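Researcher: Go.
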Amino acid sequence: MNFRVDVWEGARIALSSLRSNRLRTVLTTVGIGVGVCTLLAIVGIIQGLNSSFAEQLGKLGSNTLQVAKFPWVMGGDWWTYRNRKDLTLDLVPALRNASEHVVAVAPMYFESAEVSFQERKLNSVHTLGTSPDYLMTSSIEMSAGRFLTDADVDNRSTVAVLGAEVVKVLFPGINPVGHRILVDQRPYRIVGTMVERGTVLGQNMDMEVVIPYPAFRGQFGSKRSPHMVLAVDSQENIPVVQDRLTEALRRERNTKPGAPDDFAINRPDQLAGIYKQLTGALYGAATGVGLITLLVGGIGIMNIMLVSVRERTREIGVRRALGARKHTIILQFLMEAASVSAVGGALGTAVGMGLAWLVNFLTPLAARVDPVTVAAGVGFSAVVGLLFGIWPAARAANLDPVEALRHD
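Model: Structure:
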């Protein structure tokens, strides 16, 4: 009961003291607020980027592997990779039979082409030559028509499936299925359109045209090294499949025992690991900046509280003479320090969230702040106030009542 009374009385006196020294309170609050604002704004941007990156990796397929001539992350001499033998379509059966967990294998050829319909034209459209299995290895969903079929591949058909952005620009208000477009001046009949997919790792997946790989090779050339994308039945089986693929590829490509692999097996989680390392460094830098700012704000709180102790020495002496105990005095000053810090933290949190929202609204960078981070910002700022208020509170409580009453 006495503790609750002490808390209530301490809070009342602390708030009264803060109101009577408004300028001092505002200046102290700003110091803490700037630290929390800086920390939350940077953390909000990083959290938004993390969420966006995870979403984009999901579009690559969490249960997929890509076999290519070049690794996604290169280490060492570029010419070492450049001089590797090209991959060939003959590898498709070997990759499909490498493991019972492989459910689909699709070759992929890429080219940037001009695509036109009547007088409308699009430049630098991502043109992909692949097989029907690509539908199982990607996040594609059809909005109209159909995807490629085995008959399209076997007959070298000049058919195409369009991305959402291509449809929007070339066929505004028109169902494109059945019409013909020109891909680098060669006609293709549209058999289907894809739903909007967004951007993946900087590439607009809606600015895409998908055609059968035999037609692609016939138009753009067959002396290319394809990428092979594989779908695995579950994410848990990816390490096993990767080992089997390595064995099959070394065998098919006649790689000598002891020689390094002359191919790359790329996994989306490799990019995730590298990204975590980069954002880990950013988190460290953001935390360091925020903590330094909060440290400066905490020192400001300590100085202001020490000044407050000196100014209120006679008041403390009167309260001690009337029976106030040491822990009551300590509680009062700690609550005063924590209140200033918490208010600064709340204001800094609001400004930090606003800055993150502005970044998200005005720039391509994603930014968001989790509710847990908001609560942590306010709570941590209050803890800073408590820690830096301990010494002034202890100094006030240990004042000699007689000497305090004599203080002018």
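Model: The first helix runs from residue 2 to 20.
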